[in-house]
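pinned: reference chain
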Amino acid sequence: MAFRHHFLSRLGHFLSSRLLVSAPGIYSSLIYNRFLRPYGTHHPGICFAPTVIRMAHNSICRIGVFYDGSYFTYARRYFFFNRKLGWLNFPAFHYLLESFVGEREQHFSTFRVVYAAWYQGLFTSVHATEEQLKFQRNLDQDLIHAGIELKYEPMSQSQEEKGVDVAMAIDALAVALQGRIDVAVLVTGDGDFVPLARALMNQGIRVVSAYFEYEDEADRSFINERLRNACNYALSITALEKDPHQQSMFRDLFRQSNKQNGLDVRLKAVR
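pinned: its C-alpha cells
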C-alpha cells in the first residue's frame, strides 16, 4: 500500500511537471483519463491533475528562434541598402513570429519567444575597417537588447564560414530535449537544416521555417524546397508585403534611424 501511494505521488508529479505542461490539450486529457482518473482525484499525489489539465490546455506556447546569422544579416542589408526600408527590428520580428504561431497553434492561450540565439562565424579583425567593427558592435548591441544569445564560432581570416550549421543544430536539439520549447523557428533557407527540422519534429516540436525571398542584380535569397516541405509551417517574410492584410505588420518590422542617410554612405564598405 505504501509503495502504491509513493508510486502514484511520483506519477502525478512527473506528469504535471513534465508531460502535461507541454502536451496539447487533447493529449493532456488522454493522459489524465487513462492513467490518473481511475485512481480518483482524492489521492494526495494526483488531486491537482484536473487543474493541471486545464492549465496545459490554455498554457503558454514557448517559442525558440534559431537564427542563421549570415542569412539574416544579408536580408537586413538588402532591406536597408537596396530597399531603403530601415533595419529589420528584432523585437518586432519576434512579435511577428508569436502572431504567426498563435494563428496555427490555437490550443495555447499565450505565445512567447522564450529562447533565441544567433549563430554566425566571427572572423579576426586583422583586415577589418573601423566602420566594419562599429557595424559589428551595433549588431551585437541590437541582439543583446532583444534577448538573443550570441553564439559566434571563431573563424580564421583565410577560411570560409564553417561549422555554424552544426553548432546551431546541436543547440536547437539540446534546447528541445531539455523540454524548454514547444515550437522551433528556423530563420534560414539552407537545405542543410532538413535533418534538424526532422529531428525536432521527432521530439514532438513543431517547426517553422521563416525565410526571405528576393532577387535583384546584386542580391538573392530563397528557401530550399526540401526545408520548406520538411517543416510544419513556412513563413515568407517578403510575401507579407504583397498581402493587403499584412502590409502594416511588414512595415512595422523595420526601424528607421535618424542617421540613416549617413549610415547609407559610411556602411557601403561593410557589404
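why pinned: The beta strands are 60-68, 87-88, 110-122, 149-154, 183-187, 206-211, 214-215, 220-221, 233-236, 254-255. The radius of gyration is 22 Å.
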